From TrEMBL, chain A:
Task of the protein: Component of the coat protein complex II (COPII) which promotes the formation of transport vesicles from the endoplasmic reticulum (ER). The coat has two main functions, the physical deformation of the endoplasmic reticulum membrane into vesicles and the selection of cargo molecules.
Region ranges (Disordered): 213-232
Domain Sec23/Sec24 helical, chain residue ranges per copy: 525-623
Naturally occurring in which organism (per UniProt): Limulus polyphemus
Name of the encoding gene: LOC106466320
Domain spans labelled Gelsolin-like: 639-725
Full protein name: Protein transport protein SEC23
UniProtKB/TrEMBL annotation, chain B:
Residue ranges constituting the Gelsolin-like domain according to the UniProt record: 935-999
UniProt entry keywords in alphabetical sequence: Cytoplasmic vesicle, Protein transport, Transport
PANTHER family: SEC24-RELATED PROTEIN, SECRETORY 24CD, ISOFORM C
Ranges for domain Sec23/Sec24 beta-sandwich: 733-815
Segments crossing the lipid bilayer: none
Annotated segments matching region Disordered: 118-203, 220-286
Gene3D superfamilies, alphabetized: beta-sandwich domain of Sec23/24 (2.60.40.1670), Sec23/Sec24 helical domain (1.20.120.730), Severin (3.40.20.10), von Willebrand factor, type A domain (3.40.50.410), Zn-finger domain of Sec23/24 (2.30.30.380)
Name of this protein: Protein transport protein Sec24C-like
Domain of life: Eukaryota
Residues in Sec23/Sec24 trunk domain copies: 484-727
Domain Zinc finger Sec23/Sec24-type residue range list: 407-445
Amino acid sequence: MTGYQTYQDFIQQNEDRDGIRFSWNVWPSSRLEATRLVVPLGSLFTPLKERPDLPPVQYDPVLCNRPTCRAILNPLCQVDYRAKLWVCNFCFQRNQFPPQYAAISEHHQPAELIPQFSTIEYTISRATCLPPIFLFVVDTCVDDEELTALKESLQMSLSLLPPNALIGLITFGKMVQVHELGCEGISKSYVFRGTKDLTAKQIQDMLGIGKFHQQQQPTNPQPPAPGQPVPAANKFLQPVHKCDMSLTDLLGELQRDPWPVSQGKRPLRSTGVAMSIAVGLLECTYPNAGARIMLFVGGACTQGPGMVVGDELKNTIRSHHDIDKDNCKHMKKAIKHYDGLANRAASNGHIIDIYSCALDQTGLHEMKSCTHLTGGHVVMGDSFNSSLFKQTFQRVFAKDSKGEFQMAFNGVLEVKTSRELKVSGAIGSCISMNTKSASVSDTELGIGGTCQWKFCGINPNTTVGIFFEVINQHNAPIPQGGRGCVQLIMQYQHSSGQKRVRVTTVARNWADATTNLHHIAAGFDQEAAAVLMARIACFRAESDDGADVLRWLDRMLIKLCQKFGEYSKDDPNSFRFAENFSLYPQFMFHLRRSQFLQVFNNSPDETSYYRDLLMREDLTQSLIMVQPILYAYSFNGPPEPVLLDTNSIQPDRILLMDTFFHIVIFHGETIAQWRKAGYQNSPEHENFRQLLQAPVNDAQEILQTRFPMPRYIDCDQGGSQARFLLSKVNPSITHNNMYGWGQTSYQTESGAPVLTDDVSLQVFMDHLKKLAVSSSA
Amino acid sequence: MNPQYSSVQPPQMSDQNVLCLQTASENVYNGINSQQIAGTPKSEYGLHPASKQTPFHNYSVPICYSQNGLTPQRQQQPLCSDFQQPKFTTAVPPGTQFHPATVSNKLTQHNEELHIEPAGPQYSPLTRYSTPHPTDSLQRSGVGESFSPGLPGPLKKLPAPSLSQQMLPGGRLPFPHTSSDHYGQPQRHYVSQTDSVSSYGPPSYSKIAQYPEHLNASVPSSASLPPLPHQFSNVGPPKVNQSMNSFSPNNQVNGPISGGPLPPVSGVQSPFPYTQSLQQPPREPQYPAVPQVQMGAPAISHQLRGMDPNHLPSSVQVIEADRKERSGTFFTSTKGKVPPLVTTDFTVKDDGNCSPRFVRSTIYSVPTTFEMLKQTAVPFAITISPFAKLKEGEQYPPVSNLGEMGPVRCIRCKAYMCSFMKFIDGGRRFHCAFCKGITEVPHEYINHLDHMGQRIDKFQRPELCLGSYEYLTTKDYCKNGVFPKPPVFIFMIDVSHNSIRNGMVKFLCDNMMQVLTSLPKEVGAPASVVKVGFVTYCNVVHFYNVKGNLVQPQMLVVPDVEETFVPLLDGFFVTVEESQSVINSLADQIPQMFMDNQDTETILGPPMQAGLDALKAAGCAGKIFIFHSVLPIAEAPGKLKNRDDQKLLGTDKEKTLLIPQSNFYNNLGQECVTAGCCVDLFLFPSAYIDIATIGEVCRLSGGQVHKYSYFQTEVDGRRFLEDLKHSVRKTVAFDVIMRVRTSTGIRPTDFYGHYYMSNTTDVELAAVDEDKAITVEIKYDDKLPEEDGTYIQVAVLYTSSGGQRRLRVHNLELGTCSQLAVMYKNCELDTIINYFSKQGLRMVMEQTPRYIKDYFINRSAQMLATYKKSCADYSSPSQFILPDCMKLLPLYVNCLIKSDALSGVFSYALFKKCKRKNYSFSFQHDLDPNSTDFPKTMRCSIGNIQQNGAYLLENGIHMFMWIGMAICPDWLKNVLGIEASDRINVDKISLPQLNTPLSLRIHDIIESIRKERQRCMRLMIVCQGDKLELIFRRYLMEDHGTDGSTSYVDFFCHLHKEIQKLLS
């Protein structure tokens, strides 16, 4: 640790190596002190962070012998090379090396003992390789144009799949059709009524796949044991190489749902039953195998279980307002339905993706658990014909440098901790596996009560927030060794079908907060803390009232300021924050007004969508979501990041804002006029053309790496689309500034650059300082 | 044996027949046969008293009496009776079968009533011997029996020939004896009287009681002399014949064949002379003998008993006569004119009343009071076949379109404008013929009247000059006020293992296109607008999308059988033209796809429901064709249990098998009606399939059940295909509401047929086609005015196969009468029997077979008794008098009772449709190779069959070709392409198509017969002596059934007895 210049470097390097960032990098040595830190001790962990440099390890990990521990041999273990012994750094059990490690010596170490490989990945070669399974669930109640675009995308995707991948197709409208693949001369499908909730058993019986299921289940609760043959592909799921032609034709012949939709009605759409059948189908044919249910939906479910809205157009789909007023009769039932499905899918290791493309809401709010619990993608767009959808969908099948899918299946993350530490929960796209161990804390934060979580769908970006609790008593000495350890073990099915285990072992120093608070303060990672706090806030917002969450956030912020600020009592102007805390209030400011916590102007679907992504993206992306970044392009110099502030809006500037969900290119007034006049087309204004092009190029770069594709907005100052930018910037220029009026702008006047009731950062900060220094607080 | 046999029976029968006929003829056939009768019978009687007696037993007491007189003593000895029995049994095994206890009861009764019987059995022989003991009639009977033993050979022989001789001359001509006969008859009367007086009569077997045992039994009971006389007087004469019958078996046994030599016997019987006059000589008895012997014993025995069946009223004869007389054009304008028989080939010219093809009434002259009608027991009913097929050359009811105005109707009873309406007030108002109300004529419809009070446009408007016509309707007449869409046909194929295995699926699919080319079209339309859809099912339902623009058909499986639904609309119903290629490939695919289907448990309810839903969803009426092969036992709605229990058939519990086991199909049927969905079932069972239950759907929805047991493509394929094509092709009307309006005083009360009624007046039918008819029973409320006619208007609102909502109106005017005689003269037996059969079918569900049988017998007896009482009162009470119109009543009623549908031999037989024609008609065609005419039909009795002939028998459902042992080898070669009769392969059922004139001719004949029937009948080739012969025998309606049912002769006698009972 001493090798690092600053904590910044330390944090950065740790992240690069292990994919993990802690809110505190020096840990208080007692429970009491830990709670007084305000920001909980937590980490953002990216289990499958892309690490092309990892050595291929083709053997099994060495486990601690103690049955309650089973930690994996890691660089932090003490090793007695002569005795061929190693000491578990979690339980201090002395373990004999297995026979194949006989040749071990100080100079001849296995990779897992080399400190630089604190993260290492084992490939379990014994396990059977299962090809990935893709089950398309396609909504046919969409316009012909939409359907055509969707069909093209689906057909295209066939070429992206490995030939051995199994594929299936379910279409739905008023009815649900499960298509049999690979039949010749006639295309067959099984049709289900869209209004009848079928149990898994019924579905299996009706599809004629039930018996297989019953035989298999008792003997095979876990992934297929080695040597067991891969289950024969049934008629609904066929290898791509066998059926791509017929499936292409089948997709080509897909027709819009033929049932007539009368005036004033929505088409009858049986999303709920379709999902139920998809889940049931996979559940009994390929339990515990990596599978993706890909739901393409162009509208809200209007009948049967999972109904979001009735088919009468006069009944509008629920809004946040309705939810607050408890005025949406279908919601609770629908949520229950989808929750049930999500849990079933997740417990079988199946992923549910939702690709929702419609101008209105499609019920993501109800279906959020499907993607959230299974780690499936959620994509929200306006049209299947948009590049947003097309490219996003294409990117689902993105491959890494080795030509393998970046997606991974059916992961299980286990956390092991030193004795002084326990894990209190996780927040992310996962479900609890309800595994108790010595590392499990009694207090829960997020999904707690377990040391194992299931990540059905996981990709290199997937990041989970894991929270820890220090349980060392206040009067106890600083724990042995001076460092606390955490081991994170991720077992998953690689897209190639291999079973892999990635192990990350990290350690941090203990410090006595009463005496060495500054050490601890120095180890504060404000970015990680902000993201973790955002996650907690979102997690709470799911169940609590929005206002409560905001108040909680405020209280936490104020407490943090009080704890770590330097100030004289009751003198707001004396308030100072250390550098590694300085941005935190700003993050909180933007978080408060973000779409994650403010539902105003957002539909329930959007809110669910945004929160879902916040829960899974890595730190950098999450920060962008919380506080968008803004670049300015002008003739005055190279592009530069500027404050997310109304001040940054200048007539002769082009702004590029990235909010993760949107990419906005904002042309200042003058630039917009020039552009309108067509100067960029004349050769003598080549530089203007280049100026216009620069942000576009940068935007393209972002677009190409981002998943899901952000919405790309090109707008001019004063144009309607500019609202995307104006809603995000700090409203520092208000009526006040412009006209010399009072403090805050509660009046709306036409001249104001930003018409908002929100307070500006300045006001926020002033207020914060005042409260922080107040002796009465 | 032989001699007796042949000789005895035929003559006797004939005599009796003659008698009856004569009486009948009094009314009807006056002139015809009188001469013959007069001449022959007498002579015969004179010649063969004994023989006569036997025959008389059935009919006319006189004979018996005479016998009795001769043979009283014989009867006394019980021993004798015993003797006889053994003979019977031994000699004629079949005869033994008849003994049933039931019979015995009757017999005893009869005995009491009928004195004549005893004598009958004994016949000539008896008479001879019996003479000694005149005292007890009972004894006589016994004696008679005893005698027969004693004298078996010779005696019998003797009488027989004599009879035969007598018969020949008169037999044919029963009817002719009109008044003259009567006068001739007086003798009989005397005889009878004498009998009664003498009270020998006791021997009565009321029944034609065949069994010696019964006789014995009866004897004691009847022993009480006193009752006998009474009965005697009334019943006596006919019974004699019956007894004869009973006896005849003996005769048969003894001397089956050669009847010739017997003359002496006849001489023996003194009484005959009297009777002779009544009796008319039958044909020569001889020929039957030979074949009979060889044929199964049972049949023979029946025939031989008693009278010669050939001299009973013969359907062949009646039909032939009517055909000769009434062929040609039939004008409908005359009020109350009885139409020709349904068998007659006539052309109808509609000029005021509807064609009898559409509506037929049981009576064309309605008695003015209900009391009168009630007394006669003649039903007043009309049989309506609103879409009956017309003969070539007949005019379809013209369609008129009155535009927005719609049809003109009586404001009060809503009757439609017809030629019976009287215009008054210069044409501004009209007087309703039905309710007598007065209605303003709509402005657009007013026209001037001529000096006769007729509208001047009378002949421009069909409704003013025709009996049947159609209207295009306005929206008010449509369901939900929306004009209908063209109907759709759905083909639903069971693809479970059984259907695959028996080849049905493959066969059907191979011929699907052929079937589809015969979709019905509107008269004059270039192409059919009917759309088709396809479904297969085993334990799930498969729908097919065969939209024309698809490359290949799409199959949609609906695995949810609990709640079936229709998974698609677009592409399910297609026009054959547009989707021809897709349908073709579907037809190719289906057999392949299910080739290895191992599912044996199948469903039926769900596909039906789904089809119904499809129609509902599409908003059109239609027809569902279901091709099904096994009892639906899979877990699904409409699941059925196997409840087949052969033991129950024919018992009182039989009806439990005939009542649907669940009301699922019933409810479904009702739903079908409201949706205008007609279900046709084609069944290919190889085991019990419970038609009684699943057929409910068809029954209610106006569909039809076709059954092909043990289907084999080679054998039944063609038949099935023809039936299917017919079913697809025939004119059909959907979404039918029928309303019968009648003039005041009468009203329709009961409806028979396959329909559904949601209220009391409107008959609702999902569909009606040209083969379907509904019988409506009509009752009185008031006295009818004699001068005015009685009007009936049948209005049928329907959707045509072209998708037009139309109204078809049939009007019929019947005469009224205050004399029963007039009514009897204007009866229509075909319709009466139709009514009876439908009534019987309904009763099967509720009553025991025995009850039904008795009901028909009693009712017939009452009809005839009333006739006798009121119209032929002057006739002797012992005479059996039949009104001309009802000559065949006994025959038909007997056939009806014996028919499969009523006797409950098959529980499935219930699907009998409302046929206008009674299925009791059986024809035998003597196949004469060279003639070009249609072969002559023969009476349906084994007695007419010769060993060296080949015969064709059909009844609308079955068709048999019987080939005698002694058929000439050339014939075999030319027709079957084989060398000798013993090499006939019975399994090979179809006749080979040989290029010989004979073969061609036979095929022609078969084809033309099939064309006349609704179903393509399966041709079963029966070789003499082969197992199938038993079945064949069952359809020889005039003979004893193998199951103990009565022969025509027996029945005739029984009926006579009943009549006399009524009259006494």
